[in-house]
Amino acid sequence: MTFLNKTAMAMVVASVAVSGCSSMQLGDTIYNGYVIDEQSLNLIPVGSSREQVALTMGTPSTTATFDHEVFYYISQKRERAVAFMKPRLVEQHVVAIYFGKDGTVERRANYTLQDGKVFDTISRTTPTGGRDLTFLQQLLSGGTGANSGASAARSMFQNMNSR
User: Fold this and answer.
1) Contact 48, 97 (CB under 8 A)
2) Per residue in 78-95, pLDDT tens?
3) Alpha helices of 24-117 — where are they, by DSSP H?
4) Are 112 and 74 in contact (CB under 8 A)?
5) What is the pTM of this model?
6) Is the Cβ–Cβ distance between 85 and 30 less than 8 Å?
7) Angle CA(145)–CA(146)–CA(150) in degrees, nearest 5?
């Protein structure tokens, strides 16, 4: 009788576990950014004004204004196998609309992941060639660099000992 009770209990536990796994959503697809519409792109021929581009495509994801102005429309598709995992970038499109000095469209470009490196559009940080100092290193260096930190600490301790 005990064997049958244990077997029945094991069957119930196994069926509950299997039914729970089958109803779980395992994968996610996340879409971010601008949805690219080919019909809207066709409404912007070379020579169109900046205002026409803004009316047709909407507000750009970001702009560049160094030499000539550029509107960037960015879209990304990310997937993750399980809800707690970090999403992996699967697809990225960057539509770039380049304007001339007169404010009209010079050319259009559609960049994908195969065209180059993935660039981070969220962090808004610029990498530098220097090195980051911790709070203690900054305190000991007196703001004059990491090499003078030891001498600043030494002079501080000498001043404390001379009193």
Assistant:
1) no
2) 998 887 888 888 888 888
3) 38-42, 50-57
4) no
5) 0.54
6) no
7) 115
